[in-house]
Amino acid sequence: MLMGEGGCISEARPAANVHPTPQTHFEIDPQALIDAHRAARHAGAPQVIGYFHSHPVGTAAPSATDRASASGDGRVWAILAGDDVTFWRDGEAGFSALSFAVIDG
Q1: SS in 3 state form for the chain?
Q2: Can you give the residue ranges of every domain in the chain?
């Protein structure tokens, strides 16, 4: 899960992939997601602003499976493939590519 505020990701928090076929699909452990949202209720706590997963065989772009499972909730998806990482906004009309910068500190 991607944690942060607004458009700034401050933490990538791992969660188990509980999908029955994790080689080709992903499903975030529901309890981990619930726990993250509960923790985000506290003042000053980072919010769940998105999700990340990898494409071990493929490109760092939303796959047909990603598009089919997306909820259009406006969250950020980071997709990793090899040495590449891309960021996408999951909007009502589908995914749109996002630019990003890495800021130390």
Answers
A1: CEEEECCEEEEECCCCECCCCCCCCCCECHHHHHHHHHHHCCCCCCEEEEEEEECCCCCCCCCHHHHHHCCCCCCEEEEEECCEEEEEEEECCEEEEECCCCCCC
A2: 2-98
Q: What is the pLDDT along the chain (105 residues), one digit of tens a residue?
A: 999 998 899 999 999 999 999 988 889 999 999 999 999 999 999 999 999 999 998 899 999 999 999 999 999 999 999 999 999 999 999 999 999 998 886
Tell me if 86 sits within 8 A of 78, measured CB to CB. Answer: yes
**HSE toward the beta carbon, residue 73, CA cutoff 13 A:** 10
* Architecture of the domain spanning 2-98: 3-Layer(aba) Sandwich (3.40)
